[in-house]
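Q: what sequence does this backbone want?
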């Protein structure tokens, strides 16, 4: 299977549950921000993803993925760069790109492949919050459908304080995405 198809599949699978956001109001609780996050998933789709990410998470995301682009560039290729950004973007531009712009560009592929269709669910409950140092982990339950056809999924969103509100940390799916892309590099 061509590497570009593998990359696209990994990106789509890993990104569908990862992001969406609206800018939080000052003094919002992590629970309020989590509710806004899911509201944005339903109304705006993945295009809103970067706005909710903590700046340290954006930098971590870029830092995790740059070795993949660097290896591709060193081998004289640009397949992943072309698929995720565009043929017009040069590796040097990618290196100096702001982490938020990097994530926006990277998510553009997922949006292109899946459309920016909002994610629909029938019920959302914030079940509680666990404090861990500065971080807050919000447990939510989402239900799709009703009755015997209902599917329930639990999601833990981890937040760090930022400018009198809260912003998302990277979840394990995003870290797994970077590892999967690194594992698919030509040896």
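A:
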């Amino acid at each position: 299977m061509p590497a570009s198809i593998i990359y696209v599949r990994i990106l789509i699978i890993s990104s569908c549950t990862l992001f969406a956001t609206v800018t939080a109001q000052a003094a919002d609780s992590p629970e309020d921000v989590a509710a806004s996050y899911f509201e944005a998933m339903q109304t705006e789709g993945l295009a809103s993803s970067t706005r909710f990410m903590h700046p340290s998470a954006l930098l971590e995301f870029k830092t995790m993925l740059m070795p993949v682009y660097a290896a591709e560039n060193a081998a004289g290729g640009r397949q992943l760069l072309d698929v995720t950004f565009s043929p017009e973007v040069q590796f040097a531009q990618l290196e100096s790109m702001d982490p938020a712009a990097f994530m926006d560009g990277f998510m553009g592929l997922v949006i292109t492949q899946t459309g920016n269709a909002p994610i629909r669910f029938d019920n959302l409950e914030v079940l509680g919050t666990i404090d861990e140092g500065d971080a807050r982990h919000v447990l939510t339950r989402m239900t799709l459908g009703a009755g015997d056809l209902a599917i329930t999924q639990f999601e833990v969103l981890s937040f760090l304080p930022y400018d009198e509100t809260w912003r998302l940390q990277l979840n394990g799916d995003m870290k797994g995405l970077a590892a999967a892309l690194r594992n698919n590099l030509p040896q």
